Amino acid sequence: MIENLKFQHSFNYAYIDEYTKKEIRRKTLKAVCIPGYQVPYSSPEMPISRGWGTGGLHVTLSLVGPDDVLKIIDQGSDASVNACNLRLFVKEMSNCAVTFDTAEATLIQTRHRVPEEILTEKQILVLQVPQPEVLRGVERHEAKTRVMHGEADYAKIWVTLYEAYVRSGGLRSGAGHPIMVNGRYVATPSPIPSWDVPNLSMARCLYLFGAGREKRIHCIPPFTRVEPLEFEDIRFKVEEFVGVKCSVSGEDKAFMDQIYAEDLTSSYVVNDSNFLDKLRKGPRPPQKLFTNPA
Amino acid sequence: MGYVAVKGGQDAIENANKLVDYFRWKGGTKPIELDQARTQMRLAVDRAMGEGSLYAPELAALALLQVEGDSFEAAFHLRAYRATLERRYVAEVINTREMFVHRRISSTFRDIPGGQILGPTRDYSFRLLNPALLNASLGSIEKFISDLKDEIDPRKLHEMTTYKKVIDIFLKEGLMSSQPRAGEDRRIFDVTREAIKFPVPRSAALQMLARADTGALMCMAYSTMRGFGMSHGTVGELRVGEVPVRVVDKRGRTRVIGKIKVSEAEMVGGGARTQAGEGGGRAARRTAAPRYSIGYGLCFGQNETKAICMGMVESALRNPNPDNPANNQEFVLYHTEVIEGYGFTNHLKLPHYVTFQAGMEGARRNARRNAEQGKQVPVSAGGGEDHND
Hints:
The complex is a heterodimer.
Chain A (H helix, E strand, L loop, with lengths): L1 H4 L12 H16 L5 E2 L13 H10 L5 E6 L6 H14 L2 E2 L8 E5 L12 E5 L13 H9 L4 H14 L10 E3 L3 E3 L18 E6 L4 E5 L5 E3 L27 E5 L5 E5 L2 H9 L13
Helix pairs in contact in A: 2-3
Chain B lengths: L1 H4 L3 H17 L8 H7 L1 H11 L4 H10 L4 H12 L17 E6 L32 H14 L15 H6 L29 H10 L2 H12 L8 E15 L5 E16 L12 H6 L5 E8 L3 H14 L11 H7 L2 H9 L6 H20 L17
């Protein structure tokens, strides 16, 4: 009998044991108290691979309750395979409700996108983070980067931005533009496109960033100033989809996916799948748009 | 338009799972029984337990069967299961002097107190494929075991149960000190409960190495010997066997809760170092006895490669040197962690189209602006910084 029972293990609510969940919540509270500071935490192994959203899962599972409505997106899409997988896991382990509707969700876990629709004070956005250390590109040693943050020594990352300008003519291209949080810590917004970065500032919702493999949590509390790093004369800019319209909705003010057909011609589609659904059905959900400086 | 419009992620996963099962069973062979895997794939089970950081031979065998023998996945399943278990007790430090020894060797001395015991090892067997194994039957196995028993002199069976350690020789000769190294951080840390910060205490480094991937550790250890390090560790003692595990229960009584099999390596290194030489002059260095130190390796089960490599790497980590990867705590501890490395390298299979789009769009934007300004600047299509996913 004992032999058989051994494998019929029932899991703790929300998978992680209560002590560890408590620890994660305490570390998350610390992260809320020190916006932009990376708080080390235990980061237990999950049945999901490292680098596939375990940090997000830790935060989500430490917060989720049976009354929560959960949404999980991956690269903007609810239907992405990894999003389906994580959603099913959290649902099975916590018995929470799940949704695709951004407005309906109380807890949203995301990989590399902030939803286009404005989030409210009733919502928490949990971002999955592959590399929480924004300075890793300029300093490979963890011991040194922690000292640099302690001393607010951000000279190297400014130099990198300047070098990018000299080399390419732009401030920086690509996802994960470094941000200054609450005027103190330079942090990574996770590899979201620049399009999403302005939405982090003075938002009504709580942003939590979980980096499982690197065992760090950081946070942007509601109504916190978030500034993308930029120079006075060379300004931060978001992606411009010049002359581009969504081939499904006709929309031109949203982050776009470029889709290639068999004959290699391309068209564009609004990336945020729920936003696209709502655009098609109407009415248009509230959205905060950023205008690039001239 | 195919890729994004598809709303079938869940169906795809279910079908993928079915196909995995199909490929597992399509050969039409009999399922391998758990006990067969546990006993006949002994070393794979041991490796999975070590890297999975959970001493549970049956669960490790189940994991191996479930993942069709993939060592990364097996360790991963054990780690994920381990994370669900509550920590009720902290065991007393195990004492390998109490080990019921299956095997112990030393390469520093020709003969050692208690003798060299080769034990179960393939070290001196020819690596020739053995088709005779295909003819093994329950009958031939029984005969082999009973023949072996006949060779054993029962009077000698309980003659010797435990053995002195080879390091006792070094300690007695004054070639090694049992004193803690000056300035060394000897706090007991738990890497499963707290994120490490550098420099890490020795206990954290040892824990991480004990859980590390065998192959990754071997790579590090090998590099210290062949050009990216200063050491060629010597096996002071390697022993494999069973040690009792004790906990103190709530009434304060010490209880033995079972035995675990471990491999332990004590690698002797630092031969050039002398006690006086560390601070004294050349004359002092000549007269002082040479001081050796131990690089310590210990892991679950019989995994001698891992224990030895762990000992070598531990020794390297205690002598930091920025020129060599293996002498660098951050490099070694982060990059030999098997579950993290396995997961992150495989995450490259996840879609990255938003990240990639952001990079492409940035590059085009730069190209447009440069064209407008008539500048000739080579445009790199960046996906952001390369550490940025």
